[in-house]
């Protein structure tokens, strides 16, 4: 496993990228930002496609200044699988090891091992034209990792997939990246990609880093406009359990598991602020998860009012920043104001529990 240290400045026309980022060995870091923020330029600079005008890229102690693309030991997985159309799935995966000097037999053995890793052994002899989008992306994942890269770059790897296929491929990529232990930098617009795959987030705006930190922390307490906009969901960290999610202090948040999550595995519970009911007194006999909070702020949110939670006396830190969207009439009926203690309640059917970065 290799450590990435990059501090680069790249000028492309009138746009200037000026970014410093570090990815620890085996860590997965997600880069987020609006269109034009510089995400693709950053990946291009790391891959060697855009020579930096200043700074340097150091990977595993090797300075990559002037090192050509094919010698960087950097793998790239993009939106499109970009498989060689004239090669079978097995030969596509074997291409990287062969290019690195492996013999034909060794390369095919490596390819078969990675095809098994991505549950695609049955697809080994198919050409790309015979594969679905999800199958092709599985082969592309195997091909990217078969080269044993020191750094894996993921450029919106699920953007071109059907919505029904994405969860399975996302879960697969999470598993194989962890097994491979490869240092990974991922560009995405999807908050769920970041939640499931990334240990840390870096948010770019106009070519600069405006926010960074552990995934759950950034999404729970966003400090930049973009992070706040994509967060858009309430997030509670903990560990998966049969009922949903168990927090660090033992509270159970009822929820469903849209994708497999082992009991005890780090996870997050996600739910929309619009699904949260607010009570001035503890609700009696409710089948919902009920969370005591201290009302921190009341903000207009379209035709609704967003109630922001703060930490009540003796309460857990993770309630800070949780939100509930209610009607103005409901606010008037509650008769509350910032500083009051209230109760947020959410039904288990409205909560999804997903695996989380470490």
TrEMBL record:
<dbReference type="InterPro" id="IPR050093">
    <property type="entry name" value="ABC_SmlMolc_Importer"/>
</dbReference>
<dbReference type="InterPro" id="IPR003593">
    <property type="entry name" value="AAA+_ATPase"/>
</dbReference>
<dbReference type="InterPro" id="IPR027417">
    <property type="entry name" value="P-loop_NTPase"/>
</dbReference>
<keyword id="KW-0547">Nucleotide-binding</keyword>
<dbReference type="Pfam" id="PF03459">
    <property type="entry name" value="TOBE"/>
</dbReference>
<protein>
    <submittedName>
        <fullName>ABC transporter ATP-binding protein</fullName>
    </submittedName>
</protein>
<dbReference type="InterPro" id="IPR008995">
    <property type="entry name" value="Mo/tungstate-bd_C_term_dom"/>
</dbReference>
<feature type="domain" description="Mop">
    <location>
        <begin position="284"/>
        <end position="355"/>
    </location>
</feature>
<keyword id="KW-0813">Transport</keyword>
<dbReference type="InterPro" id="IPR017871">
    <property type="entry name" value="ABC_transporter-like_CS"/>
</dbReference>
<keyword id="KW-0067">ATP-binding</keyword>
<dbReference type="GO" id="GO:0005524">
    <property type="term" value="F:ATP binding"/>
</dbReference>
<dbReference type="InterPro" id="IPR003439">
    <property type="entry name" value="ABC_transporter-like_ATP-bd"/>
</dbReference>
<feature type="domain" description="ABC transporter">
    <location>
        <begin position="1"/>
        <end position="231"/>
    </location>
</feature>
<dbReference type="InterPro" id="IPR004606">
    <property type="entry name" value="Mop_domain"/>
</dbReference>
<dbReference type="Pfam" id="PF00005">
    <property type="entry name" value="ABC_tran"/>
</dbReference>
<keyword id="KW-0500">Molybdenum</keyword>
<dbReference type="InterPro" id="IPR005116">
    <property type="entry name" value="Transp-assoc_OB_typ1"/>
</dbReference>
């Amino acid at each position: 496993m290799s450590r990435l240290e990059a501090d680069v400045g790249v000028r492309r026309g009138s746009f200037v990228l000026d970014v410093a980022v570090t990815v620890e060995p085996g860590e997965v870091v997600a880069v987020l930002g609006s269109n034009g923020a510089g995400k693709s330029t950053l990946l291009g600079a790391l891959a060697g496609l855009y020579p930096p005008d200043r700074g340097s890229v150091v990977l595993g102690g090797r300075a990559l200044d002037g090192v050509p693309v094919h010698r960087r030991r950097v793998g790239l997985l993009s939106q499109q699988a970009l498989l060689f159309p004239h090669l079978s799935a097995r030969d596509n995966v074997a291409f990287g090891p062969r290019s690195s000097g492996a013999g034909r037999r060794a390369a095919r053995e490596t390819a078969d091992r990675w095809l098994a890793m991505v549950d695609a052994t049955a697809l080994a002899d198919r050409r790309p034209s015979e594969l679905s989008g999800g199958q092709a992306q599985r082969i592309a994942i195997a091909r990217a990792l078969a080269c044993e890269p020191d750094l894996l770059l993921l450029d919106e790897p699920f953007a071109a997939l059907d919505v029904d296929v994405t969860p399975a491929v996302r879960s697969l990529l999470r598993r194989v990246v962890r097994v491979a232990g490869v240092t990974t930098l991922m560009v995405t617009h999807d908050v769920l990609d970041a939640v499931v795959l990334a240990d840390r987030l870096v948010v770019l705006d106009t070519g600069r880093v405006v926010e960074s930190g552990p995934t759950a922390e950034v999404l729970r307490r966003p400090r930049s406009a973009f992070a706040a906009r994509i967060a858009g969901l309430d997030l509670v960290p903990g560990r998966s359990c049969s009922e949903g999610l168990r927090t660090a202090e033992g509270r159970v948040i009822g929820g469903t598991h849209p994708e497999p999550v082992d009991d005890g595995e780090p996870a997050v519970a996600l739910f929309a602020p619009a699904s949260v009911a607010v009570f001035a007194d503890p609700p009696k006999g409710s089948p919902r998860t009920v969370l005591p909070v201290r009302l921190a702020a009341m903000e207009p949110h379209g035709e609704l009012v967003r109630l922001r939670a703060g930490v009540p006396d003796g309460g857990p830190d993770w309630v800070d920043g949780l939100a509930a969207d209610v009607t103005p009439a409901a606010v008037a009926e509650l008769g509350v104001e910032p500083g009051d203690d209230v109760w947020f309640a959410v039904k288990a059917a409205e909560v999804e529990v997903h695996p989380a970065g470490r």
